[in-house]
Design goal:
Cytochrome C Oxidase, Chain A, mainly alpha, 183 residues, 0% strand
């Protein structure tokens, strides 16, 4: 198996694990809704809700990234460019997810200073991860996009599916010309 497929298996295993956490947090939230005294004092309803919603987004993202790393070598006939950096970013992404989950569980609330807002409290009201984690996820996705593009240009032959990936960078590129015909 290639290095990108090994990375894809790691992403898909993390996605399955996060799916289990999401399901567990969703079940906890449902039981809390029915019985407000459930786990009283251990895990608050808002924390279970945040874990459920945030892991729902992250497991889908990790599953998508695993699928991309699985199909890139098959589609383009070569290993993705910069796979070594993608492997490092996987562990950075997993560490960030674990840190955010730990913050949600063990740092429920705190003073509203500039430091605590940036590191812990920002976005809780709207069920979001702290800003630093959102920036990290955006960087991981930008790097994934860069690897996919550089692999596209590096590949020798592009099959039919490869052309659709190349064309997906700007979805309306070809259809916009047909929708505005010249007089």
């Amino acid at each position: 198996m290639s290095r990108s497929k090994d990375l894809a298996v790691k992403y898909l295993a993390a996605a399955v694990l996060l799916f289990g956490v999401m399901t567990l947090a969703g079940l906890m939230s449902a039981v809390y809704y029915i019985n407000p005294d459930f786990l009283f004092g251990l895990v608050h309803f808002s924390v279970a809700k945040m874990l459920h919603i945030d892991t729902m987004i992250i497991w889908l993202l990790m599953g998508f990234m695993g699928a991309v790393y699985w199909f890139l070598p098959e589609e383009f006939g070569c290993e993705p460019a910069g796979i070594w950096a993608a492997e490092i970013l996987f562990w950075v992404f997993v560490a960030a997810v674990l840190v955010v989950a730990g913050i949600f569980l063990f740092v429920p609330w705190g003073p509203g200073t500039e430091t605590t807002l940036w590191l812990f409290q920002q976005g809780r009201k709207y069920v979001e991860a702290p800003r630093w984690a959102a920036i990290g996820v955006a960087l991981v996705m930008l790097v994934l996009s860069r690897f996919r593009r550089s692999t596209t240009w590096r590949s020798i032959s592009i099959g039919g599916g490869g052309w659709s990936i190349c064309g997906s960078r700007r979805p309306g590129r070809f259809s916009s010309a047909a929708s505005w015909p010249l007089p």
